[in-house]
Design a protein that fits this description.
By secondary structure, the protein is mostly beta strands. It has an 8-stranded antiparallel beta barrel with strand order 1-2-3-4-5-6-7-8. Strands 9-10-11-12-13-14-15-16 form an 8-stranded antiparallel β-barrel. A hairpin with a 6-residue loop joins strand 9 and strand 10. About 3% of the residues have low confidence.
Length: 277
């Protein structure tokens, strides 16, 4: 079972993914809803196999958790609009249906972060959906999938971003998030979060143009894998410049069979404040 390949959702959008050995995922997304374009995807999946539960009544194996971040700033030519400031966080799993890989399915809980209103389409807010993706024929892309070297960039940009820094949970100070923008053009972020005394590496995107476009909110989406628990994690939300706080939705997906897919993803809200230097 592999995540690599092209996947199509019920809206007709295509997502082409490449899974690398260390669990890192890079890809491109071709949207057919709202604005159309080609968008960058990055994320993580579990590298260890889930427990085989083929002896239970469902006769199915548990799925492979996956978390993805999407930047809705199109890399294709075209006129920009308000959605270019948005990001998405997706969390779920790749599931077995049977022994035919073409019958596999990816089911993702989707958190769309809209940090400015799009007239006649969507007001500011966070939109939640649960979307299945089925395997599709390889997509004809005019852009190459990102290389592992590009995705593993770790050097901070010369221009500091408002997102950069260390953030501490307001309700639970044991939660500590660190974020660094490593590519301003793409809004690519690397970081980590401490949750339940575990350090979880993260990758994702932020709206690096939010300050220039005079927005009050800056979107961000981060993805990771928790090797100790076999889960995937997505963090999506925004930085409020005035309050200097991060408000995030945390999605955590555990491996499930198709029969227990409704238990796949848990949700919690996080509010974090910048740690004093």
């Amino acid at each position: 079972m592999t995540i690599s390949g092209t996947w199509e959702n019920m809206y007709g959008s295509l997502m082409t993914l490449q899974h690398y050995d260390d669990g890192l995922i890079g890809g491109l997304y071709q949207s057919s809803t709202g604005s159309t374009g080609i968008y960058r995807v990055i994320g993580y999946t579990q590298t260890r196999p889930a427990n085989d539960t083929s002896t239970d009544q469902s006769h199915q194996k548990k799925g492979q958790p996956i978390a993805l971040s999407i930047s809705w700033r199109s890399i294709d030519s075209g006129r920009s609009d308000q959605s270019w400031n948005w990001v998405s966080g997706l969390c779920g799993q790749l599931s077995y249906k049977d022994h035919n890989p073409q019958h596999n399915i990816i089911t993702l809980s989707h958190s769309l972060v809209a940090t400015n209103p799009f007239p006649d389409f969507a007001p500011t807010g966070t939109y939640i959906d649960k979307i299945p993706y089925n395997r599709a024929a390889p997509s004809e892309l005019h852009y190459s999938l990102p290389s592992p070297l590009d995705l593993r960039t770790t050097s901070a940009c010369s221009d500091a971003s408002p997102i950069d820094g260390t953030w501490v949970g307001l309700e639970d100070p044991s939660i500590i998030l660190t974020t660094t923008v490593v590519n301003n053009d793409q809004g690519l972020i690397r970081g980590s979060i401490i949750l339940s005394n575990r350090i979880i590496p993260l990758v994702g995107f932020t709206d690096a143009q939010a300050v220039r476009t005079a927005l009050t909110l800056q979107s961000l989406s981060l993805s990771g894998a928790i090797e100790e628990t076999g889960c995937a994690i997505s963090l999506s939300g925004h930085l409020d410049y005035a309050a200097n706080t991060l408000t995030l939705i945390c999605l955590t997906s555990s491996p499930q069979t198709l029969a227990t897919l409704y238990l796949q993803t848990q949700i919690r809200g996080l509010t974090l404040i910048r740690q004093a230097v």
